[in-house]
Amino acid sequence: MDAFILQLLNGLDKGGAYALIALGLTLVFGTLGVVNFAHGALFMLGAFCAVTLQKILTLSQKVKDESITFFDAYKEQPYLEIWFGETGTTIIEWSVPLSLLLAVPVMLTIGLAMERGLIQFFYKRTHAQQILVTFGLAIVVQEIIKSFYGANPIPMPAPPLLSGTAPIGEFLGIGDVVAYPWWRLIYLLFSFLIIGAVFLFLKYTTYGMVVRAGMQDRATVELLGINVERRFTIVFGIAAVVAGLAGVMYTPIVPPDYHMGMDFLVLSFVVVVVGGMGSLPGAVLAGFMLGILQSFASTNEVKNIFPGIDQIIIYLVAMIVLLTRPRGLLGKKGMMES
Asked: pLDDT digit string (tens) for 141-166?
């Protein structure tokens, strides 16, 4: 039972990352009809918003080390600690959550610039052309990040208050053996909140209802005098923000590097296809389902029976789903079935 709960939680927090990226991919495909292979790069850029803010907050100068009395020694001390003391230290420790405030305007601006500067010219092109141009854009972005930040992963610690483990077993009444990192639980909760916020926005706001109507029948909505293209541009920006926020919060789990966007993109695109192209509930369902399957497939008991199954389980499930239900789990009838 202990191992089951741990693997379930591992699958849920991994599935949360898949679901958030897949949600943005599905939003873009459902509104604009664009297969955006640069969406993983947006996840990576969000992570590097956190890296950038940490570097800014830890700008330092050399000061005399008072703990060494035999000779003059100097150490690097951040300006924030020099100016504000313990308050400055606390600000630095909470740099990852504070990065969310930076990521929202930055990712919105990047998303809008990407859509207006490039994506809009490929609306009526084939999906193959869309994939090629957005994939090329993703490579350009990751090489830019590599040139500025280097190729090595950059550790991003969680705030000390949230860096320990939560007594899951004690909470569930099954003993005190099961413990799970607080930050992973926070990431899972964060995933649910962002997914819920997107669905509430689309379902209960006038703006969201117009967007959903445009996804169903764009021509009719335009005949009503509504500028659907402008609203879809904003949706692209929102999708970029969702991916960026997911990247920010994932940095204490996996140290960011220039290639992390590609690592998540392929898996998340498989998630979109399994859930159903254009289906937001399908993307979320498939994200969590495949995350859980991958987690359990990575256990030693399973790998001893099926060596390497953890590396192919997602693709194996995708193959089975597409052979039996080409439109995906919750895809619309006729989607990808012709």
From this structure: 999 999 999 989 999 999 998 888 88
